[in-house]
Amino acid sequence: MASTVDSAAEQLSKLGIDGAFADSAPNLKKNLHLLSSEQVELAKMLMEMGQSHLFEKWAAPGVDDNEKRAFFDQVAKLNSSYPGGLKSYIKTARELLADSKAGKNPFDGFTPSVPTGEVLKFGDDTFINYEQAGVKEAKNAAFVLVAGGLGERLGYNGIKVALPAETTTGTCFLQNYIECILALQESSCRLAEVSNLAISNVNASVYEEVSTFMLLSSNNIYLKFVGKCQEIPFAIMTSDDTHSRTQELLESNSYFGMKPTQVKLLKQEKVACLDDNDARLAMDPKNKYRIQTKPHGHGDVHALLYSSGLLKEWHDAGLKWVLFFQDTNGLLFKAIPASLGVSATKQYHVNSLAVPRKAKEAIGGITRLTHADGRSMVINVEYNQLDPLLRATGFPDGDVNCETGYSPFPGNINQLILELGPYMEELKKTGGAIKEFVNPKYKDASKTSFKSSTRLECMMQDYPKTLPPSAKVGFTVMDTWLAYAPVKNNPEDAAKAGAQVDEPVQEVFNGQEVEVWPRLTWKPKWGLTFSEIKNKVSGSCSVSQKSTMVIEGHNVILEDLSLNGALIIDSVDDAEVRVGGKVQNKGWTLEPVDHKDTSVPEEIRIRGFKINKLEQLEKSYSEPGKFSLKP
Ligand code: UGB
To answer: How many C-beta neighbours within 10 Å does residue 375 have?
Structure first.
């Protein structure tokens, strides 16, 4: 044994390494000569940061040497993927753990109040104007989906973006998102081209790429021309848990019609777990040569966009907006055009989308926080923090509804629109680091040890926390059914678009009582905005509660349609199909499925029902031209 130590010491001196820094970690010292000079520097840093316990169980040189090198590969990765490196991570962890032990309120000194934002009423003139402004701006936008989380709470083993966004067609969330972005791209381009047409004749030679549009003007005259669309970039943040399955889903479906070069996957790394209040890094229980890691949260997206160079690329390409969204909000794109319009019109640096919030609902509350020193910010206060904050600051009832039946604090749905210029400037200063928090589960009231290891976490909506008071931070509130809910529509609002939709019936699936509405789905290219949809529905249309309608085509016009059953229309882009008359058939019914019945695919089981296709009217139009379907 002594000779091993001697020879290691000799080798160290030959390599010019002074091993004194590792005196208190003899098992590390014995192995130092196995390491590269970069790895020795990392070892020094770990020792300086009080992490000698990591080497306590290391074997003598000659045993597990590759595992030891792999340990330092992991340390190098943890170090490079965190802004400021592991040293900074450990330092911040110690501060936050000390605050947590002392029971310090993260909002100390701040008083909450209800902020004012833009409250939109679906379908009124203001809403329509914002939608138009938003569609115009969309060509200057990039979209970012945070999809690094697993559906653990959902009790689902796959990636959440592969789940059906609705059951009628089974279109998955990722397909829905991509088709919405492509439809926005086309609509935005079309608007720009219409403006160009107004000022000059179209010069076909300037267009590099061929795409054909049918333009529907108010008096139903069609213009047809060839144009070039600026591609809207789409970035997806994945994690080790979701990366390969997201890539496979895209590749096996030809990117759902998007160009592969238009989509960028950015993988977030996990962060080191912490064993105690001194921020000693936790060992992986299954491997003494690995540090245990856990997800750091969706806040990583900012650092990744910055460090990958994507933000700069978008900025250099002249883009103006970055829109962030989450993995399973199938209604989101119904709210995007108007809220982007709000950002553009009000010149918001940060715009958060919100819906009315019921007190104690598990969505964060958008709050104005005013500090005793005069500072003030509009920020999400997470659902678990809102009630204690209110009680501690003069609201003895805490998180309760007001006279409207809702919490006075709008509910954060975590869809953010950031203006790219100011966002880049801020990230140049912070590198994308977001204020973190720690949530240790203590063993007892002494708060000296944890039930299990913890880690630092960060949330993407905390980005405004570091912004100067001059930053224009606002929010946009929309109806829940429009922006954030399972697919449903209420008769009053649907009637505004020209259709009478029957009331829902109550049914129970998987033990949960749900309202079952008629199932109406359409491709994003059929209609993304209120105006587009209104233009395609005319006369007196009605849809009974048991009905299903699927519109797959671009130019499908509903005129005096009375639907009581199932109707499926598919058409190529340059076919105009007018659908009216009385469609009556047995339709599609919803059949309960037991969530324990493993003979049924998992994604159907967790929904609790499947579709029974009894009878439908299905028509497909594969040739250009004008058609009429009036049974
Ligand atoms: N996600 C990642 O990409 N990486 C991670 O490490 C973790 C998550 P959850 P959460 O809209 O109802 C948020 O778990 O965080 C992705 C808001 O904080 O679904 O509990 C993940 O894939 C809250 O204020 O939600 O709560 C998913 O796409 C409220 O608005 C997204 O991040 C709530 O969402 C959100 O992750 C809500």
So the answer is: 12
**583 CB-near residues (< 8 Å, 6+ apart):** 561, 562, 563, 564, 565, 567, 617, 631
Confidence (pTM): 0.86
Expressed in angstroms and rounded, the spacing between residue 386 Cα and the centre of ligand 1 is 17
pLDDT given at position 515: 84
Indicate which residue's Cα is closest to atom 11 of ligand 1: 413
Residue 172 CB-half CA count within 13 A: 17
Ligand 1 atom closest to 153 (CA): 14
The whole-angstrom separation of Cα 258 and Cα 265 is: 14
Number of Cβ within a 10 Å radius of residue 261: 9
Task: Give yes or no for a contact between 237 and 300, defined as CB atoms under 8 angstroms apart.
Answer: yes
Ligand 1 pocket test, candidate residues 414, 457, 465, 480, most atoms within 8 A of CB: 414
Q: What is the CA radius of gyration of the chain?
A: 28
What distance in angstroms lies between residue 505's CA and the mean position of ligand 1's atoms? 31
Q: Give me the helices (H) in 228-283, please.
A: 243-251
Q: What is the pLDDT of residues 27-59, one digit of tens each?
A: 999 999 999 999 999 999 999 999 999 999 999
Q: What is the rounded CA–CA span in Å between residue 110 and residue 99?
A: 16
Give, using CA atoms, the residue closest to atom 24 of ligand 1: 364
**For residue 48, what are the CA distances in angstroms to 22, 25, 88, 195?**
10, 12, 12, 63
